[in-house]
């Protein structure tokens, strides 16, 4: 299968990168650097023996950087084209603690318990978020990290979401993943959509925080440092990333 990286610009061991046209590499991506700070605080020192799952790992960018930190990483990816990129990264980095599997993230329990559950760019492609949180909680011993879009009382200026509705007893808005059955049948080649559900439920922010708590994480908060250097602009101006895209990082920790 032809290797075609579309998002993750990863530095390989020989000094080359996976997307030479991009100005920076994935180890400097704000979500990763913010997560790295959090994980170094929670797990100081040697990371060997600590297990991290990267759900919907796409092209392996986060997975490889977590492995470079010392975690034993399992990247889970369902699309063959993405997994080909992941395997290319594996072949070109000397990281015996880096592993990729082709599977649906709903099967994560088949891979044992993890100290860290990392879920970015995937949670807003789920149609049963409450059930999914409980699944993740059942196999996460310490920390859950979710970077996701969320719903607000105001209609999104960017995404075609439904009116505010209730699903699994929580409030949010529905997002249609595929325009028709033909698109759904071709989902292997549509990298930025869900896998086995045609619509996804974007949970309202405060309900997401509550459901992380309800899932068993007694310390729950939202992390904002990935919005640096200007958090105020990102959160308050119409074109600020947080304000415009309604997307943030939500943390659950078993203290």
Account of the 3D structure:
The structure is a single chain. This protein is α/β, with parallel strands linked by helices and 255 residues long. It has a single domain, classed as Vaccinia Virus protein VP39 (Rossmann fold, 3-Layer(aba) Sandwich), CATH 3.40.50.150. Helix content is 27%, strand content 24%. It has a seven-stranded mixed β-sheet, sandwiched between helices. Strands 6-7-8 form a three-stranded antiparallel β-sheet.
Q: Which helices and strands, and how do they pair?
A:
Blueprint: H1 30-42, E1 51-55, H2 61-69, E2 72-77, H3 80-91, E3 98-102, E4 114-120, H4 129-138, E5 140-149, E6 165-167, E7 170-176, H5 181-185, E8 199-203, H6 205-214, E9 219-223, H7 231-236, H8 241-245, E10 247-253
């Amino acid at each position: 299968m032809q290797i075609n990286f579309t998002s993750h610009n990863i530095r390989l061991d020989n000094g080359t990168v996976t997307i030479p046209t991009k100005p920076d590499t994935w180890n400097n991506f704000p979500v990763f650097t913010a997560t790295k700070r959090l994980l170094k605080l929670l797990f100081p020192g040697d990371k060997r023996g600590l297990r991290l799952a990267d759900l919907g790992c796409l092209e392996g960018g986060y997975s490889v950087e977590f492995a470079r930190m010392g975690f034993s990483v399992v990247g889970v990816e369902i699309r063959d084209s993405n997994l080909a990129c992941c395997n290319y990264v594996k072949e070109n980095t000397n990281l015996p603690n880096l592993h990729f599997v082709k599977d649906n993230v709903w099967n994560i329990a088949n891979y044992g318990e993890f100290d860290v559950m990392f879920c970015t760019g995937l949670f807003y492609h789920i149609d049963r978020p409450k059930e999914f949180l409980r699944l993740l909680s059942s196999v996460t011993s310490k920390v859950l990290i979710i970077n996701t879009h969320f719903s607000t009382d105001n209609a999104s200026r960017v995404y075609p979401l439904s009116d505010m509705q209730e699903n699994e007893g929580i409030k949010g808005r529905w997002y249609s993943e595929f325009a028709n059955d033909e698109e759904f049948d071709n989902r292997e080649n549509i990298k930025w959509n869900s896998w086995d559900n045609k619509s996804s439920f974007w949970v309202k922010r405060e309900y997401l925080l509550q459901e992380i708590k309800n899932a068993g994480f007694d310390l729950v908060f939202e992390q904002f440092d990935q919005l640096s250097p200007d958090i105020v602009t990102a959160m308050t101006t119409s074109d600020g990333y947080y304000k415009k895209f309604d997307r943030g990082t939500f943390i659950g920790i078993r203290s």
